[in-house]
Amino acid sequence: MMNQSKQSPLQAYTQAVSEGFIDDAAQRQAVAALEQCYQALQAGSVVVSGVYLYGRVGRGKTWLMDQFYQSLSVPARRQHFHHFMKDIHQRLFRLIGTPNPLEKVADELSAEIKVLCFDELFISDIADVMILGGLFQALFKRGLVIVATSNQPPAELYSEGYNRTPLLPAIAAIEKNMQLVNVNGEQDHRLHDGPRVQRYWVKQAEHPSALPQLFASLSAGQSVAQGQLALGTRTLMTQAYTDTVLWCEYAQLCEQPFAAQDFMLLCERFQVLIVS
């Protein structure tokens, strides 16, 4: 039975437009696909096609997917793709020695949720390639509905990566089980007015650095360490850090072979990051 307290994707989009959100033909096409998926889920259809939204940054793909996710009354999960893969790797680690571990993971996920929404599907890690080929097939076989966003169409995922062949079954499964929607509108919705929250403070290079004083202020009352910071299996050289604040040089953070998982660890551990 439909949850009357929630809006469908189409209702949410229509309301946003009525409140001043810029109407966008490409987004309306995406909304139509999301609405179709939503209605099929609400009706309890046995076979429900997922939705794959792709296109340039700023087209509103994440916002559209979030409206869909918020409309759901069935068990669902919404994750960034890298967080999704981190969860998969952890599940597989727990299943070491178990026959057909990908099938077990698919069983677990399909028992937990009916819909999986993940944002910014981008594949650059060969370890993920080796997993996804079988995982997507197993999830679709169990009737899990996937709604995803990406900057690339499925056929271009990991297009120049090493040993792409194991990923091809995943691409084929996406193309078979999901509606592909190119959100190619001319509107860059990042440039429109919205809630303004300052998250970055930038100081001109020619001005004397205030970072030591800033770090001291933010870390007041905390134990301060310097030098090497263990980050998973890697090491980051820092200027200083506490339990909540990290200060490091740009080169140490951005010119090292860190992976998405390493940056996720940083975000989980620290509340403030100072880069000089």
Quick recap:
The protein has helices spanning 9-18, 25-42, 61-71, 81-94, 101-112, 126-141, 168-177, 211-218, 250-254, 260-269; strands at residues 50-54, 76-80, 115-119, 145-150, 178-182, 225-231, 234-241, 245-248, 272-275. The protein contains ten helices and nine strands. The mean pLDDT is 88.
Helix amount, in percent? 40-55%
| Beta-strand segment tally | 9
Rg, please? 22 Å
Give me the number of helical elements: 10
Number of domains: 2
In terms of structural class, how would the helical and strand content be classed? Answer: alpha/beta
Tell me about the largest β-sheet.
Answer: 5 strands, parallel
Average pLDDT confidence is: 88
Low-confidence stretches: none
- For the record, give the distance between the C-alpha atoms at the N and C termini, rounded to a whole number: 55 Å
Say what the CATH topology of the largest domain is: Rossmann fold
> CATH superfamily of the largest domain, please?
P-loop containing nucleotide triphosphate hydrolases
Q: Report the portion of residues in β strands.
A: 15-25%
| Pattern of helices and strands | HHEHEHHEHEHEHEEEHHE
Overall, the morphology is: globular
Shape-level CATH architecture of the largest domain: 3-Layer(aba) Sandwich
Side-by-side strand order of the widest sheet: 2-3-4-1-5
The CATH class name of the largest domain reads Alpha Beta
